[in-house]
Design a protein that fits this description.
This protein is an alpha+beta fold. It has helices at about 5-10, 75-80, and strands at about 25-35, 45-50, 55-60, 70, 90.
């Protein structure tokens, strides 16, 4: 393998491990945007989601171009990108 200096450090391999189910069942939520920081999504319910029993999240965006995303690192990862420092919150529909 011919690598230039620093190339190995720049190439990160992220390994995912099978997670054990920690909750008894999946639960639904809405992603609620209180302030539209980007000027794209608007305010109110901007996405619907489900948190699976292993913590993985599937999110379905509302709007003109609905899209589905999967967050294997769960709610904390989702909010780190889309939470906009508290401008967007999770509203749980199931306990």
């Amino acid at each position: 393998m011919n690598e230039t200096p620093g190339q190995a450090a720049a190439t990160l391999i992220r390994r995912r491990y099978l997670r054990v189910r920690t909750k008894s069942k999946a639960r639904r939520f809405q992603l609620v945007r209180h302030v539209d920081v980007s000027g794209i999504s608007g305010t109110g319910v901007v996405a619907e989601g489900i948190e699976w029993s292993d913590g993985t999240v599937a999110l379905r965006w509302c709007g003109q171009y609905p899209t589905t995303t999967v967050w294997q690192d769960g709610i904390p990862a989702l909010l780190s990108i889309h939470g906009h420092h508290g401008a967007t919150t999770i509203h749980w529909l199931d306990p």
